[in-house]
Design goal:
The complex is a heterodimer.
Chain A lengths: L8 E5 L4 E6 L7 E8 L6 E6 L2 E4 L4 E4 L5 E6 L8 E9 L12 E6 L1
Parallel strand pairs in A: 1-9
Antiparallel strand pairs in A: 2-7, 3-4, 3-8, 5-6, 6-7, 8-9
Chain B lengths: L4 E3 L2 E4 L5 E6 L6 E7 L6 E7 L14 E5 L5 E5 L8 E8 L8 E2 L3 E5 L1
Chain lengths: 111, 114
């Protein structure tokens, strides 16, 4: 399993763009990068997944450089409701994969 | 069902009693996971079922913990002789297939051992 490293916590203000970077130096060729969001008292929910370059959806963007040894989750114009823990995971889409969550990044959005 | 369902949502039990937690995965999902999350902590992997394969029990913290799943349906997590350190939210997730496909989580069971 590719190990991931994220900052433990981040603070931001409403309306700012937030970028959370995840390091995964030993990512394998067939691994994808997936991010989850967990609000207090809820289970995590999938927000975005990518393999290379850039992926964008209605919630976030995911930037992956050519070497794929890191990735950056970008949340545009955060609001108080984006306060959550964000988890980065790396693994293959096929084959046996065990969902192991790291400690995640605790994002606190301030007014 | 529409999503992963867990029951009960809350459980208070006395130290030393056994508890059983239930997870109904999304129909057709072959993989099912149990996690434990203590207050303010990350998700701690407990056990993983994939289809009819032998479960991966590598995360179970002690022999007081066990889980079963019949085929690709309901799973139960049993904690025997509960201890106060077992107090946590127990989360269940299911995925459609192998690999890092999207995992869908239930709302969890909040277990309090008094």
């Amino acid at each position: 399993l590719a190990k991931t490293t994220q900052p433990i916590s981040m603070d931001s203000y409403e309306g700012q763009e937030v970028n959370i970077t995840c390091s995964h130096n030993n990512i394998a060729t067939n691994d994808y990068i997936t991010w989850y969001q967990q609000f207090p008292s809820q289970g995590p929910r999938f927000i975005i997944q990518g393999y290379k370059t850039k992926v964008t959806n209605e919630v976030a963007s995911l930037f992956i450089p050519a070497d794929r040894k890191s990735s950056t989750l970008s949340l545009p114009r955060v609001s108080l409701s984006d306060t959550a823990v964000y988890y980065c995971l790396v693994g293959p889409l096929a084959g046996t994969y065990k969902y192991i969550f790291g400690t995640g990044t605790r994002l606190k959005v301030l007014a | 069902g529409a999503g992963v369902s867990q029951s009960p949502s809350n459980k208070v039990t006395e130290k030393g009693k056994d508890v059983e937690l239930r997870c109904d995965p999304i129909s057709g999902h072959t993989a099912l996971y149990w996690y434990r999350q203590r207050l303010g902590q990350g998700l701690e992997f407990l056990i993983y079922f994939q289809g009819n394969s032998a479960p991966d029990k590598s995360g179970l913290p002690s022999d007081r913990f066990s889980a079963e799943r019949t085929g690709e349906s309901v799973s139960t997590l049993t904690i025997q002789r509960t201890q106060q350190e077992d107090s946590a939210v127990y989360l269940c997730a299911s995925t459609p297939d192998r690999g890092v496909t999207e995992a869908f989580f239930g709302q969890g069971t909040r277990l309090t051992v008094v």
